[in-house]
Amino acid sequence: MAILKILSAATSLLLYHYGVYANIVSNKSSGDETLISNLIQWVRANGGYVNDKISFRRIDPEDPTSPRGVFATQEIDEGEMLAHIPWDLIIKSSERERGEVEGMSQDDCGVIQETIKVMTASDSNITPYGRYLLSQPQNYTAGFWSKKGQELFVEMTDDFLPPNSIHDMLGAEFEDVCDGDVNDPMTVQAVTLVRARSDWEYMVPIYDMFNHHNGKHNIQLRINPYKSSIKETGYQVIAGRQLQPEEQLYNSYNRCGSCDAWYDWFGTPEVFLNFGFVESYPQRWLFDLARVKFDLIEADDGQISVKFLVPPSKRGVEMLHHQLVRLNGFSVKYQNKSAIEVGVRSIEWDSLWQYYDALHAALTFVTNTNETLVDDVWIMDDNWWVQDGTVLAEEDEHFVRTTARDEL
Fold first, then answer.
1. Which pLDDT belongs to residue 181?
2. How distant, in Å, are the alpha carbons of 6, 45, 335, 340 from that of 106?
3. How far is CA 86 from CA 68, 165, 228, 294, 392, in A?
4. What is the pLDDT of residue 357?
5. Which of 48, 53, 201, 404 supports an S-S bond with 74, CB 3.0-4.6 Å?
6. Cα(171)–Cα(391) distance, rounded to whole angstroms?
7. For 310-349, b where at least 16 C-beta lie within 10 A, e where not — what string?
């Protein structure tokens, strides 16, 4: 699977269960403010635009450790420009800079190399965006955890539960495809950031600071950067509808206008794997080996309902019940241990349990369903999970594993 296929815009804060993208700029509050202020000034001074009606602040202004978000400070009209990032401020491969690549390319090696250059520039030449990227935590998504952290994650998911391909994020992709040095910390950090923050093959300042929420996303790009040339226009972020004062501005990392290849298979587990957080409801879960696919939807009163996207089967639900029992055993084994006791970083340990809670809840909801169980899904072909997107099972653009179908 090409590296390109596991990219999207931006990243998140691991330690909060907001289910939104939160810039991972840690507790150095005054330093954070300076970094962001300098970044905005740099964009404006180099032909870009950041709307005065938006602010970049903590979600809880009284808590200096809470995640950041982008908020409207005044009423903003639908279609109004929120930010414009010129072509020259966007990190991209040298081939794309020279116009040798159009549309989607097959890997992200070039943008990783350019990101390394931006982050390792001298003090006199480093840009505010380079300093901002350097301030991000180290190796915070599961594909870049320590060996022990990944071993625990695989033990929890049992190579049955999603997300799949946790080991592909660095070795099988970057090392093999890009001939990259996985032993160099700065290189690994650049790969981490590109995988978590890029919009496919572009690292876009400001745009990567909007949080994710599939139920509330209210911004969009004026021009799809992969269907039209953006050398003249750059990235133009606009309001998707009228916004009210104090309303948070949200992007969608897997349901965006250029994300149609992800619609059918890239759900809550993949958001966690790629961006490092558990998204809030609505959530999408695809359990490929059980042939179960559903959305979890939160009503106004806080009640969660299950919307099956393919008919659930007794066989599939029983498989997931078995996994739920096994998952309970994992909790009994480890729940009273600390990160130090199991030999992992606290950011890995906290993140693992954040995902555990979401996974356990999803399995509980689906195994307690009152839905009529039928076997229809097991006589469907490998495209049983395909519905809205542009990717089919036979294409190498997804992580859905195949399962044997029943004979008719």
1. 82
2. 11, 34, 42, 40
3. 24, 35, 15, 40, 35
4. 98
5. 53
6. 25
7. bbbbebbbebbbebbeebeebeeebeeeeeeeeebbebbb
Model pLDDT, residue 407: 63
Cα distance between residue 54 and residue 300, in whole Å = 27
Q: In the numeric block, which tokens belong to residue 233?
A: 């226009």
Cα(10)–Cα(196) distance, integer angstroms? 5
Note the helical H segments in 120-257: 128-134, 147-157, 176-178, 185-197
Cα separation, 267 vs 17, in Å, equals: 16
Tell me the pTM: 0.88
Identify the pLDDT of residue 390.
Answer: 80
Per the listing, tokens 């090696």 go with 109
Where the chain has pLDDT below 50, the residues are 1-28, 104
β-bridge partners, 220: 238
For residue 149 the two structure tokens come to 């952290």
The pLDDT score that the predictor gives to residue 301 is: 95
